[in-house]
Amino acid sequence: MKKISIIICLILSSFLNGNAQISKNSALYKTIYNHDSLLFEEGFNRCNLEIVNTLVTDDFEFYHDVNGTQDKAMFLKTFKESICSTPNRKPIRKLVKGSMEVFKLSNEGKLYAVIQRATHEFYIKEPNKELYKTNVALFTHLWIKQGENWKLKRSLSYNHQVPKKTYGPKFDANYDKVLFSSDVEIEQLIKQHNIPSLGIGYINDGQLQQVRLYGEKTKGNPVDYKTFYKIASLTKPIVAILTLKLVEQGLWSLDDPIYNYHIDKDVKDAPELKLLTTRHILSHQTGFPNWRYLNADNKLAFEFTPGSKFQYSGEGFEFLRKALEKKFNKDLEKLAEEHLFTPLGMNNTHFYWNDKIDEKDYAVPHNELGQPIPYKKYTTANAAANILTTILDYGQFMSHMINGAGLSDSLYQQFITPHSNKQPGIDWGLGCALQLNLNPTGAYAISHGGGDDGLKTIMLILPKSKQGLVIFSNSENGMVVWKKIIEEYFGSLGETFVKRNLSE
Question: In sequence order, what DSSP letters do the residues of 63-109 get, joined into one string?
Fold first, then answer.
């Protein structure tokens, strides 16, 4: 089989070097592109094995430069047992934009096959975490025409490389024009990166000064001030401030054991349970994993003593939600409305879908190709994710944070004091990341990011200058514009912030 693989590679290499690829605007190119999407988006990424089975020929062969060769039966078995058996640590494949080439194979003028050549990247998807890249490789496919259908007959995947640690393409806008000189520049930028829409809120002198909205929620449906974005983990700062307001009023304690109000059955007998406090939860020192379904047994467990080190955890915030709801006998949405949303006029912010949200106002998530993807309408609160809000509302919330969040000076100082350390240059306070000493005068940032399939969000605050920035996008590619926008708004401070935060 190794000799066959070498011969195939030599033949294809010789052929491709002497023949021009077909136009990327041609119907044939688009057909092969769509077949690639079916094979990998539906088959590989979403584990639709039936799609894979129908797309490959019965005599299909797969050649891998590390893992050897496979026939169709083995290929499908590997899909099922290796790629699709770990949904909480799921491999994801992405085609590198602009890398795909297609070459015709004809016999006496009649088209019978095509060769597809491109670069693809592989990531790992874990619940409520950003995708992280694990591999980059080249691939070559031989597609055979069978009647009116195209079938994959041979697949070669080779030159696998571990990506280098840099800002990486997901943070490189590849756009050398200065933004904000005109709306045209922003429209060109998001179009270049298949980003359907972008929302930006800028806070200056402690007030929301500017809201800029570009693009579409869905095709033909432009964004406006009423546009709802799902903001993923930007939910956590809202829950943190809500909790601190309850502490300020003497209704809740940062340091009392939280098991007084909620005990999860998975950890009811754990000795660490009686040590767990709200302070540990807000500073991500619970000892919990991000989500319990990352564990092999799908059960929650303490992985270290609470308070001993940093480990980001959505489970911790959900533990807090259940305790608050038990204590106050009302759900988190009602608590937030009473203590935060209504007083601040955040009338378009909700923890879950309800009859106040018009679906036409929702910025639908989109994949890296700019295509809409399915989304779920949550109907219960999650303290770690899923809030639906607008740029106006979240900007109002950030202004409130900059101006002390209605907390006493002593409690606000606890909010912005490092409680744990995530990595060099990034500490964690009570609900947000802290980047201290961004310049010689001691400027610092309060920030948080958020991401889910097809949407990316980020917010940052510079308390000393009373400035802030929030960016929402309904695109898998949303992070690609963060670096450029942050640096253009905040200059050298933005550059330092980017260096500490936006790396793969």
Answer: EETTTEEEEHHHHHHHIIIIISS-GGGEEEEEEPTT--EEEEEEETT
The pLDDT of residue 402 is 97
Q: Across 369-444, where does the E strand assignment appear? A: 388-389, 420-423, 426-428, 433-435
Q: Tokens standing for 265?
A: 């059955």
Model pLDDT, residue 128: 67
3-state DSSP assignment of residue 244: helix
488, 180 contact by CB (below 8 A) = yes
What is residue 503's predicted lDDT score, i.e. its pLDDT?
Answer: 53
- 147: which residues sit within 8 A by CB, 6+ positions away? none
Residues of the chain with pLDDT under 70: 1-19, 128-130, 163-182, 502-504
Other CB atoms within 10 A of residue 237 CB: 26
φ/ψ of residue 496, rounded to 5: -65, -40
User: What local confidence, expressed as pLDDT, does residue 13 receive?
Assistant: 46
Percentages helix, strand, coil for the chain, rounded to the nearest 5? 35, 25, 35
Name residue 387's amino acid. I
Strands 149-161 and 56-64: parallel
Q: Report angle CA 382, 297, 309 to the nearest 5 degrees.
A: 65
Measured between alpha carbons, how far is residue 91 from residues 38, 109, 133, 363, 375 in Å?
A: 16, 41, 10, 26, 20
Contacts of 253 (CB under 8 A, 6+ apart): 247, 277, 278
Query: Do residues 282 and 243 touch, judged by C-beta distance below 8 A?
Result: yes
Q: Do 205 and 327 contact (CB within 8 A), yes or no?
A: no
Domains within the chain, CATH numbers bracketed: 2-161 (3.10.450.50), 169-501 (3.40.710.10)
What is the structure's pLDDT at 83? 80
Tell me the CB-side half-sphere exposure of residue 86, using CA atoms within 13 A: 13
User: How many whole angstroms separate alpha carbon 504 and alpha carbon 133?
Assistant: 8
pLDDT (tens digit per residue) in 435-457: 999 998 899 999 999 999 999 99
